[in-house]
Amino acid sequence: MTWPEIYLNPVQGEILNNIDLGDGMFQLVVSAQEIADRVKPGQFVSIKVQEGFHPLIRRPYSVWNAEEGTLEFLIKVVGTGSKILYGRKRGKIDMLGPLGKPFPEPPYDTDVVVIAGGTGIAPLMFYLKYHSIPKSILIYGAKTSPSDYLYSRMQEVCDNIFISTEDGSFGYKGLVSELVEELIKTKEVVPEKSIFFLCGPHGMLKSLDFLPHERTYVSMEGVMACGFGICMGCAVKKRNKKGYFRTCVEGPLFKLKDIEL
Ligand SMILES: Cc1cc2nc3c(=O)[nH]c(=O)nc-3n(C[C@H](O)[C@H](O)[C@H](O)COP(=O)(O)OP(=O)(O)OC[C@H]3O[C@@H](n4cnc5c(N)ncnc54)[C@H](O)[C@@H]3O)c2cc1C
Ligand code: FES
Question: Among 2.40.30.10, 3.40.190.10, 1.10.260.40, 3.20.20.20, what is the CATH number of 3-99?
């Protein structure tokens, strides 16, 4: 679709559920057949968090799961928009999407290692669920232990899970980058035989810049404005080249070798 078509065709979803998952995160479940039927892992939806003009700009959220006409989102409360969404338990919700490019078909002869921080787990879980990947490893880092619910959802999509928490309440005590280094030392993860998919806070992505650039993809979740390519509000600098990519149109997934973190 071109941007005017996207802009002129918002989907009216219906909020079905909104559940607090602890650690500032919540699960938003929305009925939206038109998007659920088309969305692929890695794509996102631009949500108008409430009626009226405040806030003016839509907020982008990756799809965590889509089935039977329903979309699930995993959202962290960080500011105005997410706080309003957290408070929305029922009613209509205006959405544009699916936006962005889907993740590529996974390789079936190589380990697929997904590494996520916080809500960055959402698109990566959808990816693992959508494709039947024979050999996948899920590495998740957070400040504190994931809720039992979130952990059980991870177990549904992957048999090989490693978790780090900064407070040591679950799994490895420390940062996810330190856990990845440990797993490489113990050969649980072999970089030369793996493809990596990363999504999470900027600091986490930077700390994983040691992974092989050619074999690593990064899903960028920085600030966005229009969401469909006309404002440059989501620019990501190209690595070793002049110019920028637009996360919303050329991304959100990029090869690490192509972008400056
Ligand atoms: C493609 C894409 C997918 C995303 N998927 C998810 C998702 O699945 N779940 C989720 O919780 N979030 C996701 N995000 C991030 C989410 O869009 C922002 O957290 C959200 O827009 C914040 O809006 P707000 O009104 O709550 O915060 P604001 O009031 O706009 O900002 C509050 C504070 O957070 C900072 N901030 C705002 N947005 C970001 C950001 N994206 N990165 C870093 N700092 C920010 C602001 O600078 C400010 O300091 C995604 C972003 C993109 C681009
Ligand atoms: S958010 Fe406007 S160009 Fe990407």
Answer: 2.40.30.10
Say yes or no: domain 111-258 is CATH 3.40.50.720. no
Average per-residue pLDDT in the chain?
95
Q: Ligand 2, residue 231: give the atom nearest the CA.
A: 2
Mean pLDDT of 224-251: 95
| Closest ligand to the CA of 249 | 2
Collapsed DSSP state (helix, strand, coil) of residue 112: strand
List pLDDT tens digits, range 68-86. 999 999 999 999 999 999 9
Which ligand has its closest atom nearest to the C-alpha of 233?
2
User: Whose C-alpha lies nearest to ligand 2, atom 3?
Assistant: 229
CATH 2.40.30.10 domain position(s) in the chain: 3-99
Phi-psi domain of 35 (left: phi exceeds 0; alpha: psi -120 through 50; beta: other): alpha
CB–CB of 145/165 below 8 Å? yes
Q: Tell me how far the alpha carbon of residue 12 is from its chain's centroid.
A: 22
Q: What is the pLDDT of residue 97?
A: 93
The CB of 24 under 6 Å from ligand 1? The reply is no
Please state which of the ranges 47-56, 64-73, 205-214 shows the lowest mean pLDDT: 47-56
CA atoms within 13 Å, Cβ hemisphere of 83: 5
Cα–chain center distance at 247: 13
- Dist. CA 18 → ligand 2 center (Å): 28
Whether the model clears a pTM of 0.85, i.e. scores above it, the answer is yes
Tell me, using a 6 A CB cutoff, whether residue 62 lines ligand 1: yes
What per-residue string of b and e applies to 143-174 under the rule 16 or more CB within 10 Å gives b? eebbbeebeebbeebbeeebbbbeeeeebbee
